[in-house]
Amino acid sequence: MAIDVARPRTSRRFDPWLLICAVSLSVVGVAMVYSTTWGRLVADGDPGAYFATRQALFVVLGGLAAWAVYRLDRAALMRLALAGYAGSVLGLLAVLTPLGTTINGTRAWLTLPGGFTLQPAEFAKVFVVLLAALWLSDRSGVRGLGQPPEPVAILGVLGATGVVAVLLLLQPDLGSALVIGAAVLGVLYVAGVRRRLLVLLLFGGVAGAALAYLVGALDAYQIARFTAFLDPQSDPQGVGYNVSQAAIAIGTGGVHGQGLLEGAHTQGAFVPYQYTDFIFSAVGEELGMLGGLLVIGLFVVLLLRGVTAAGHADRFGSLLAAGVVSWLAAQGFENLGMNLGLLPVTGVPLPFVSYGGSSVIAAWIGVGLLLRVSRH
Amino acid sequence: MSQIQTRAPSRPGGARRTPSQRRLALLRVVIIAVAVTIAARLVWMQTVQSSEYTAKAQIAQTDVVEVPAARGDIVDRKGRILAGNRTAYEVVAESSVDRASLQAVSQIAETPVEDLSARLLICGQPGSRPGTCYRGQPGEPIPILADVPIRAALAIRDADLPQVSVRQIAVRDYPSAANAAQMLGYLGDGTGKSGLEAQYNQALQGVPGRARRTLSREGRPQREVIQEAIPGQTLVTSLDVDTQKVAEQALKRAVKASRAQGYKATGGSVVVMDVDTGAVRAMASYPTYDPNIWARGVTDAEYTALTDENAGRPLVFRPTQAVAPPASTFKSLTTVAADNAGFDLKGTYDCPASVVVGGQVFRNYESRTYGPMSLARALSVSCDTVFYRLGYQMWKRDGGLDNTSAAEAVVNTARSFGLGSETGVDVPGEAAGEIPDRAQVLAEYQQRRDDYCARAKTGYPEEPDRARAKLLKQYARDFCRSGYQYRAGDALNTAIGQGRTLVTPLQMATAYAAIANGGTLVTPRVGARLEGSEVTDLSATSGSRVDADPVTLAYLRKALATTSVTGTASGAFLGFPLDQYPVAAKTGTAEVAGKQSTSWFASFAPADDPKYVVVVNVDQGGLGAATSGPVARAVYEQIFGIGQ
Lengths: 376, 644
Prior knowledge:
The complex is a heterodimer of chains A (376) and B (644). Chain A is mostly helical and 376 residues long. Chain A is built from 14 helices and three strands. Chain A has helices spanning 2-6, 16-43, 50-71, 74-96, 120-138, 151-170, 174-190, 195-214, 220-230, 239-253, 264-267, 279-312, 315-339, 357-374, and strands at residues 100-103, 106-111, 117-118. Chain A is globular. Chain A starts with a helix and ends with a helix. Helix content of chain B is 39%, strand content 19%. In chain B, helix 15 packs across helix 22 (550-561).
């Protein structure tokens, strides 16, 4: 490759910063999951570490999955991408059948034995990105970065993304649909797709979301989240309540925080869904501004090292890293934004930190892919 | 960045970076820009706005909540609980709850989803139904399922459905063997709506306290009570669970037996009361219902059944709300009236098979004839013709057809015994009954005269049956001409408790209590006292005197005592230790046009030193002695501990 020829490979080791950031975020995650769940668990007579232990198990499983994708060669990745994509689509179809479980108005979960649930949307994000990176680098790998990809490949990627997006909107899970859209846009952008097309796609996505709103594909619960963002007082006991309680938790944290397990608002269980989507509000209250900035910092370093890896890699690696970074950035920033009252509530978890097996394992697979790219 | 720049010269062309690298660089800029925005917002919230949020947190973490006061128990005279409290679980939902959540609740609780959604409708909204619609504050969570079994409650809680939650509530519990559903009454939204629950609601419900809810470090809300709730007072009644149970069971048996003989026996009452104080020892109403249905939440079907005419309207408390002609039980009062009008109690009266008044024949029951007898015997064997004659003679003395007279011996006496007006019992919703007099006949005539006088001219051309039309026209002509008259026939019917005289069983109980206690009209009381931090006595002030000579009442007590020995009730009291516990009684069989006869039994015991009055009636239940007598006997056996 042109770039790598010019610069001799000095190392085939991965970028340790990526791993450090992901592990640190995961540790914070396990600690905050414990802090936000132990009280209620103990009160109900259950072991207080129940959710935290499970979260740690998810991190270990995620690490193993990351190690697996790290070691796969391109051909195996291609097979994995196709199989994973097919599996995700089947999973997304299955949640719409009676196999699916509805939580918070969204039909997004499949129940597994042993009290586990599987959220196909989380895995769909990984596999759509992987598939897009593979297709867009397949034929034109030799052409080098910056050359526009073949229209056929673009259409293929858009088609694959569209299928998943429509299935997600049927759940309805607008947040995941937007995250996948952002991730694919990121891949297309770095792949050199013309700006005009990107802008068109962006508008198409916005129009699609608006259409979904108009034809009623989104149910009242989803709409309430948006109106609550515009006016938190409109529904003080519903989503607006959630947003305002999260803000109170963060605001009371101050610079140093109340201390782990010491946040009155967190320990009093005032913030609904705090151990999943609103876990950053617990970080803000108990670990304070310093803890909050640390989490944001770790996250940003992870993303920036991912971009750096993309800059160093071959076309496939570059697109893959750009896709993973776009995905994690869109999801992470949306989550932080909704915790801080900057963005509407769409119910996406904070990668590595929020409680949830599917989310944690998917994020770790993303890290595995980034580590793999960073090796070049 | 520097690494990229060092590589840049390897690219041919003038650009220092490849387009792709430019795009990656832009991605980097976007990430940093968004991260800085988010970090800035975090810093802003946690420094500048921190005190503002801390103040909000204190408000949120320490809200003042109402602490409901425990509702007081209703207990019997020995402290046995008739209506208490127990913990139950109810499912509440926001009014905007989605169908899927209701469906899930419906599945877990095995309740039709329509029943759940019906409860979400606020009363007065289109489609809302009384009984199931929501009467509470708008905006508050609406109870959609009350008294859910704990298993289902936990399952619903664990399902974590949006806008659905499960909460603990206290509901009424009825641990005693007695039913007394209508007398105890029911609650709606924590407030007594009927019966004793409504009458003593204020004392029973107590005063809710206030608590500031703060949070402990353990994550459980802690309550700091600002103002203690004052628990509701205990209502100690004069009821006796054992007597109540026996009365209910005996009444039910009587109804069943009466139905087995072909009577409809649509409903019945038992009243057991202290003759001196009016303290009610038992009041049974049939048909009845399971009071627990209120705790579970009454469905439309249940509410319909409670008020269904064909099912005997179980919601009605018959001892105070169902009126019927008193029939022969009224003869005791006619006797008092006769004495007041100057007739000789010691005289001899003929009891022919029938008497003829104004061309109309008034017969004895089964046209029996007994010959000359004392008034006491006439009461004992319930000879109608003796009282017809007395009634006719009093009617003549009171002015006959002249309806301006105010001296009406029978009506005035009956009214002084409490008939025609409410007894003042502490169970709300009492019926006053009716004792028609001359003034009332005149008032009705004036109201309807124009109609009938017009009909007297035009007749009834719309009536297809010509004979019937002729009869109706004749009646209209008669009414138009002389409807203002209080006729002899009316007086005769009143004298034997027939016609338009209507009384409640409780009214008959107070009337007979007056006979038994020597002439005091007591106010019946179910509540004896309220016990809380202090004790409030509920017994009624002493009642008014009835219009009767104590000698007459003593005469009556003696006369009525023979009914159970040799009179109409002798069959029902065969084998009863009457020498030990003499029972004074009067049977009655009321005739109501178009219906089967109503069975009455009014009594008190011991006849020589009366303690309790027992009145039984069974609507369309046949003969007084045969149907109602055994019920009274069962009650006396329980009270006096006979055969136990």
